[in-house]
Design goal:
CATH superfamily of the largest domain: Glycosidases
CATH topology of the largest domain: TIM Barrel
CATH class of the largest domain: Alpha Beta
Strand content: 25-35%
Number of strands: 18
Number of domains: 2
Radius of gyration: 24 Å
Oligomer: single chain
Helix content: 10-25%
Order of helices and strands: EEHEHEHEHEHEEEEHEHEEEEEEE
Length: 357
């Protein structure tokens, strides 16, 4: 998977509502081992004024010294500050001060919002940095009933990219989504809580899973390949797959999107027999597309003493044996498996273990 990427952008620190900069504690040993250039990202809270230039510059110095001492091939610093358009002049002043104090050999870049396009002060902001990353996902708070466009709208993203390409004075990248969110809404349909890569309890009137369809992102990528803006330097993916991050795309799906491969699930079932005579029913996705399981899984078996489904599935008796039905639309990531139930039978015809469409 590492061959798909030319480098890493890694969160190094982020500011709190009090204006403090908190260390994100990334694994420097892994970054050093990869040998690829790394850009350290400082995320500054956009709902309040950023820390002073002195505070940010001091933290950049600390990051540069510590990361380089750990063997990380640090190439640049990126400021991620989602400020209001009205604050762009002040942001440009901050960047100007940081640029004069940047450690030798490091570039300075920013994350840019499409809502800034057209603002006169954006020219000053972009003139203070070496490069930028245009974020085209999660721009507005998703409202109930807004569909998937609350997280990503490919057509709108294309319009933003085209508009940004006309004004960007230096190389830029586009940040594309490879993840989903669970959003909690109040009774007026306003988002009040979000669950991302880390599990969290959401107290809300209702919740909804928002997903970015990899096929729409792949289509946008192919369009950019056919008509690439002259200063488009590449793509930044947010966020990379993690075993504990069940809302991020699988490694298999992300690789397929980058490669332009066909995206389709490939569900299959296997029976795993235990020493006590019971058998686990395991559903796997052997395709390239993260997707919910389809209609049912049927197991042909004889003389069954007991059988049951596990969380996310229900079980019914069938003419051949037993049938398992999904009860949620939870995604089964490509390359992953679920234990969906168990059976204790005199025999299970493995050749007839299959998934019904």
């Amino acid at each position: 998977m590492r061959g798909d990427f030319s480098g890493w952008r890694v969160l190094a620190a982020e500011s709190t509502t009090r204006g403090d900069l908190i260390d994100a504690s990334p694994r420097l040993d892994l970054l050093a081992r990869s040998g690829k250039p790394v850009v350290a990202v400082l995320r500054l809270n956009g709902s309040r004024p950023p820390p002073s230039a002195d505070i940010v510059a001091h933290r950049i110095d600390e990051i540069g010294a510590a990361w380089r001492a750990a063997g990380v091939p640090l190439a640049g610093i990126e400021i991620d500050h989602d400020c209001a358009t009205a604050q762009l002049e002040a942001y440009a002043d901050l960047l100007a001060q940081l640029r004069t104090r940047l450690p030798v050999g490091l570039t300075l870049s920013i994350t840019a919002l499409p809502t800034w396009i057209g603002a006169p002060a954006l020219t000053r902001v972009l003139g203070r940095v070496d490069a930028s990353v245009l974020q085209v996902h999660a721009i507005a708070a998703p409202r109930a009933g807004a569909g998937e466009t609350g997280l990503f709208d490919a057509a709108q993203a294309q319009r933003w990219i085209d508009a940004y390409a006309r004004i960007a004075p230096a190389p830029f990248r586009v940040a594309l989504p490879a993840y989903g969110l669970r959003v909690g809404y109040d009774d007026e349909g306003t988002a009040v809580a979000v669950e991302g890569e880390m599990p969290r309890a959401i107290e809300a009137q209702r919740t909804r899973e928002l997903r970015v369809d990899p096929r729409t992102v792949s289509t946008l990528l192919r369009k950019l390949e056919r008509a690439r803006p002259p200063l488009l330097a590449g793509i930044v993916w947010f966020r990379l797959p993690g075993e504990d991050d069940r809302r991020a795309w699988s490694t298999t799906t992300l690789h397929a999107v980058i490669a332009g491969a066909d995206l389709k699930p490939g569900f299959g079932v296997r029976v795993q027999t235990a020493s006590d005579g019971a058998a686990d029913i395991v559903l796997g996705n052997r395709g390239t597309f993260d997707a919910p399981p389809s209609a049912s899984v049927e197991i042909a078996a004889n003389a069954c003493a007991a059988a049951d489904a596990l969380a996310g599935f229900r079980i019914e008796k069938s003419a051949a044996g037993w049938r398992f039905f999904p009860t949620t639309d939870t995604i089964l990531r490509a390359g992953h498996e679920w234990r969906i139930g168990w059976m204790r039978c005199a025999s299970i015809d493995r050749e007839s273990v299959n998934e019904s469409p």
